[in-house]
UniProtKB/TrEMBL annotation, chain A:
<comment type="similarity">
    <text>Belongs to the mitochondrion-specific ribosomal protein mS29 family.</text>
</comment>
<dbReference type="GO" id="GO:0003735">
    <property type="term" value="F:structural constituent of ribosome"/>
</dbReference>
<dbReference type="Pfam" id="PF10236">
    <property type="entry name" value="DAP3"/>
</dbReference>
<feature type="region of interest" description="Disordered">
    <location>
        <begin position="44"/>
        <end position="76"/>
    </location>
</feature>
<keyword id="KW-0689">Ribosomal protein</keyword>
<keyword id="KW-0687">Ribonucleoprotein</keyword>
<feature type="compositionally biased region" description="Basic and acidic residues">
    <location>
        <begin position="66"/>
        <end position="76"/>
    </location>
</feature>
<protein>
    <recommendedName>
        <fullName>Small ribosomal subunit protein mS29</fullName>
    </recommendedName>
</protein>
<dbReference type="GO" id="GO:0005763">
    <property type="term" value="C:mitochondrial small ribosomal subunit"/>
</dbReference>
Automatic annotation (TrEMBL), chain B:
<keyword id="KW-0687">Ribonucleoprotein</keyword>
<dbReference type="GO" id="GO:0005763">
    <property type="term" value="C:mitochondrial small ribosomal subunit"/>
</dbReference>
<protein>
    <recommendedName>
        <fullName>Small ribosomal subunit protein uS9m</fullName>
    </recommendedName>
</protein>
<dbReference type="GO" id="GO:0006412">
    <property type="term" value="P:translation"/>
</dbReference>
<dbReference type="InterPro" id="IPR020574">
    <property type="entry name" value="Ribosomal_uS9_CS"/>
</dbReference>
<comment type="similarity">
    <text>Belongs to the universal ribosomal protein uS9 family.</text>
</comment>
<dbReference type="InterPro" id="IPR020568">
    <property type="entry name" value="Ribosomal_Su5_D2-typ_SF"/>
</dbReference>
<feature type="region of interest" description="Disordered">
    <location>
        <begin position="38"/>
        <end position="62"/>
    </location>
</feature>
<dbReference type="GO" id="GO:0003723">
    <property type="term" value="F:RNA binding"/>
</dbReference>
Length: 497, 310
């Protein structure tokens, strides 16, 4: 029904001053004549009894007083988390345990036994962060590693490269892959211990994730190259690791001029001092690293620097967890777009070693590149999986034009830069090996027996190690996965009898 | 109007009943030689003048003489016992047992397995409230009869026993025992909770794959790995067989224990003699428990909502 009230007449009225108009409150509409009480009641609000609400008994929680204790100092928690204990005085000492040395590392009779790491080398290994927490070093008297088939293979390669034979100066490039807890990181550690035995220069990136999580400083390289970035602090840390772990650097002298550093490098400067320039001043750390890298790859001295030139030792370069480098980093560029990890110079340098280009050698004095994937801490990157399959296919001799050559999914997003990082083109230098994929799996039964005997000798395992018992544990460990064997071996057995 | 009163209605019903009674008599009379005079009038009112029969009674025809007893005797002597059919059965079986008691018998375990009626079924068949204890005594007699040497079993006993068999003897058809296939693979199935597993067991070196993954990848917990391989481990066969399992549904525990059951069944195909050992290891018995359903008005299957005052 249309109201007979004329709204148009009302709107045409001159507007009254706002204060004169009564406020249109609901409560007031109810009782138009008694504005004051209604307004007061409305103001008071929630005094009406709540008939419809449940009145269950609620226990009022007492507020705890705020904790007065001081939080731990900055970095203390991380230090505790990253603490590495390498010895357990309660574990039994194994009297006839052998150490890694020039003779034992290539001795195939020692396969399956546990070789101890020499005590003087432990500081070097700590410096390159070869040990990781939660690897179970703290349950034994002294750190040691099992000699498995892959260990012996790598030992022979290292021995050949540093020897005087045909293999001298060769470059071996491997990507270490495998399931969780199959010993990839320890495999790198074993290679490092052998390299230190042979007095190689060892350069490591123990945690590749740190470089892409935007936790260290970054800056564009220069005004000419604004799209590539250096990470001064991370580079300084790398130099620091390298200097601490490689005393051999103090014997080597510079062989050429280096620009880009704050002061000219005089002849006779040791490589250690060269690196320390970068450590002291992170602003030039990238240039210092490049200078150091050029020096380590030098085959002869430039004129004027011949005095005291020594041939450079082979190098071992290891990177752990390369999957983090195969995606966009957490860094942003000027346009607030994420920077691809391959645009970080640090990352780019280490990835470029995989494919040095025609006639080039990534390590001119020979050596080994060992890049490991991680199965427990790694982002899912389908392109990397395909790239690794392609590496394996090339290693098996499958041509890229063959139908069985793996290709990325056509309907998935493919990162071409990742595929290109592993796709070597051109003819490499004669001593340069091809990129190989090494997949680690479980130990064999004999190796598992040696490993579990090590537990028994250390007093951790009180079992009669029969073949059946070992076979059973081997099966339970998913076919001798070494990390699982360790979990089984260290499980406390409580005898109820 | 007299029809509408109650009295008139009664009269009418009486009248109808009388004619109905008389009509079959007239039909019967067609076979018996009766004269017209002997016929009863259509309406037998008492006030009507009845025609007196004249002469002697007809001769008694002994060929049609009906020997109706003065008192009806029940067929079964147990008629008044309350459960006559059951007692008849018992007496019949006891009689048969006494008759053939001298026949040789076989050991109790070796007699053919018979699916006798369950108590409730038997009660339905005889239609009497048979007590449990008495039915057990009947079963005891049946089992004793069943133990008679099968070659010498008389047909009479067999027929008597067949009365008490459930229709479609469930024990008559036994599944064919599983055998290895031509590649030496045994197949076993198992279920636990919501998981069901199929295991292919073949002689080997102790490799275990679950859904194509290794044991470690499939079961991160050591306990689950141990329970999945328990059938092999408890019989010291873990390093003598390879396991290829595919599991669906459920969680880690359910999947692991479904694999256990399936492995045990597959292992029994390879080595049937291991059954006692496996039973002792607890991998033969099926755990048929499933999640109890949630009920309306409950928070979970049994949990009730918190009590609230008003």
């Amino acid at each position: 029904m249309v109201s007979s009230f004329c709204w148009g007449c009302l709107t045409r009225l001159p507007s009254a001053p706002r204060a004169l108009l009564p406020p249109t409150l609901t409560a007031q509409r109810v009782a138009a004549f008694h504005t004051s009480t209604a307004l007061l009641a409305a103001k008071k609000g929630a005094s009406a009894p709540k008939y419809r609400q449940g009145t269950s008994m609620t226990m009022k929680k007492k507020k705890r007083p705020a904790e007065r204790t001081r939080p731990p100092a900055v970095g203390e928690r991380k230090a505790l988390r990253k603490r590495i204990v390498l010895s357990n005085p309660n574990a039994l000492e194994i009297p006839d345990m052998k150490e890694v040395s020039n003779e034992t590392m290539v001795d195939s009779r020692l396969r399956g036994s546990v070789l101890g790491l020499p005590v003087p080398m432990l500081d070097q290994l700590r410096a390159v962060q070869a040990f990781q927490p939660k690897q179970g070093w703290s349950i034994f008297r002294r750190p040691g590693t099992v000699v498995r088939r892959e260990t012996l293979e790598i030992a022979r390669l290292i021995d050949g490269i540093s020897g005087e034979g045909e293999e001298k100066g060769k470059v071996v490039k491997k990507i270490v892959s495998g399931a969780r807890a199959t010993g990839k990181t320890v495999h790198l550690l074993q290679a490092m211990s052998m390299a230190f035995t042979k007095e190689w220069v060892v350069i490591t990136v123990p945690d590749s994730q740190e470089l892409v999580t935007a936790t260290t400083a970054y800056a564009p390289l220069s005004d000419e190259n604004p799209n590539v970035y250096v990470q001064p602090e991370a580079t300084a840390a790398l130099l620091s690791r390298t200097v601490t772990a490689n005393p051999v650097l103090s014997k080597l002298k510079v062989s050429r001029e280096h620009t880009g550093l704050k002061a000219p490098v005089p002849a006779g400067t040791t490589l250690e001092d060269l690196a320390k320039m970068g450590i002291k001043d992170p602003a030039v750390s990238w240039n210092a690293f490049q200078a150091l890298w050029a020096e380590l790859g030098a085959k002869s001295a430039a004129p004027g620097f011949e005095k005291g030139f020594q041939p450079r030792p082979p190098m071992l370069v290891t990177v752990d967890g390369i999957a983090h480098w195969m995606k966009e980093s957490k860094y942003n560029n000027v346009d607030v777009q994420p920077i691809h990890a391959h645009d970080l110079l640090f990352v780019r340098h280490f990835l470029s070693l995989l494919k040095p280009g025609t006639g080039q050698s990534s390590l001119p004095n020979g050596g080994m590149l060992l890049y490991a994937t991680s199965a427990s801490n790694s982002p899912t990157i389908p392109t990397l999986d395909v790239a690794l399959k392609q590496v394996a296919a090339r290693q098996a001799g499958v041509r890229p034009s063959a139908p069985e050559f793996p290709h990325p999914d056509l309907y998935a997003k493919t990162d071409q830069r990742v595929l290109d990082a592993f796709d070597s083109y051109g003819l490499p230098a004669p001593k340069e090996g091809t990129l190989e994929l090494q997949t680690l799996a479980g130990l064999t039964r004999e190796e598992a027996r040696g490993y579990l005997e090590y537990f028994a000798h250390s007093g951790l395992l009180r079992e009669n190690l029969t073949d059946e018992w070992i076979g059973e544990k081997w099966s339970l460990a998913g076919g001798g996965v070494i990390g699982e064997l360790e979990r089984i071996g260290r499980r406390l057995r409580v005898n109820t009898a | 109007m007299a029809w509408q009163t109650s009295n008139g209605l009664v009269h009418a019903v009486h009248a109808v009943r009388r004619t109905a009674q008389l009509r079959p008599l007239s039909v019967l009379s067609a076979s018996t030689p009766l004269t017209l005079q002997q016929r009863q009038p259509a309406r037998g009112y008492a006030t009507e003048g009845s025609q007196q029969k004249s002469g002697a009674a007809p001769e008694i025809d002994f060929s049609t003489f009906k020997n109706t007893p003065s008192r009806i005797v029940p067929v079964s002597p147990a008629y008044f016992s309350g459960s006559p059919k059951f007692i008849d059965h018992i007496l019949n079986l006891e009689h048969i047992l006494a008759k053939y008691a001298s026949l040789p018998t076989v050991a109790p375990g070796t007699a053919p397995r018979m699916a006798w009626f369950k108590l409730l079924q038997f009660r339905e068949v005889v239609g009497e409230p048979v007590p449990t204890k008495k039915y057990k005594s009947l079963l005891a007699i049946l089992q004793r009869l069943n133990r008679i040497e099968p070659k010498l079993m008389p047909d009479e006993v067999q027929n008597a026993m067949n009365v008490f068999l459930r229709p479609g003897n469930p024990y008559a058809f036994k599944p064919v025992p599983a055998t290895l296939d031509e590649r030496g693979v045994a197949r076993g199935k198992g279920k636990r909770k919501a998981a069901s597993a199929v295991v292919h067991l073949v002689e080997g070196e102790g490799e275990v794959r679950v859904n194509g993954q290794t044991l470690v990848e499939a079961f991160p917990r050591i306990h689950d790995r141990e329970s999945a391989t328990w059938a092999l481990r408890s019989t010291q066969r873990l390093d003598k067989y390879n396991v290829w399992a595919s599991v669906q549904g459920g969680g880690h525990t359910g999947q692991a224990e479904a694999v256990t059951l399936a492995v045990a069944r597959a292992l029994m195909v390879h080595e049937p003699a291991l059954k006692p050992a496996l039973r002792k290891a607890g991998v033969i018995t099926v755990d048929a428990r499933r999640v109890e359903r949630k009920k309306p008005g409950h928070v979970k299957a049994r949990k009730m909502p918190t009590w609230v005052k008003r």
